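Changelog-adjacent note: as of this version, every example in the card shows the full chain rather than a window. The one below runs 145 residues end to end.
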Amino acid sequence: MNARKNMPLIDINPEHPFRYASEWDPRRPGLTKGGYLEGKIHLPKNMGDLRVVLSTVPGEPLTVDEETIRKHPASQEVHPAILFVVRKGRGKRMQEKEPVPNHHHWQQEFHIVNKCVRIKNRTSEADIPRYEKIFEIPELDDVCM
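Full-length structure tokens:
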């Protein structure tokens, strides 16, 4: 019997505090409160390049007004919690690689190409003023190789 067949695809430690988006804001260094989601994602071996999308979803449809549902049918499926990827390297946080938390961060997308993990950065208008002090955050960026 193959042990990997019985292994969950995503194994996340459910014991973690939820944080406000303002507590992750890369424009405010040194204010992160912790609460990192810890776990493992088990990907199939020898499958070539992969696209992995992590999303937060509600346990039941959200109560949303009819006008919003008409304009945005998927609005009942969006979870109010965000998934924010904290970039760390050389022993410290690399805020210059992190977009400001925004309404797109209920979902994170990763691309695994030639065993290199890349993140699809979803930036917003809030990032534009930062580009006076940092390089523009690329649409796809290497996370690790």
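Structural remarks: The longest strand covers residues 107-113.
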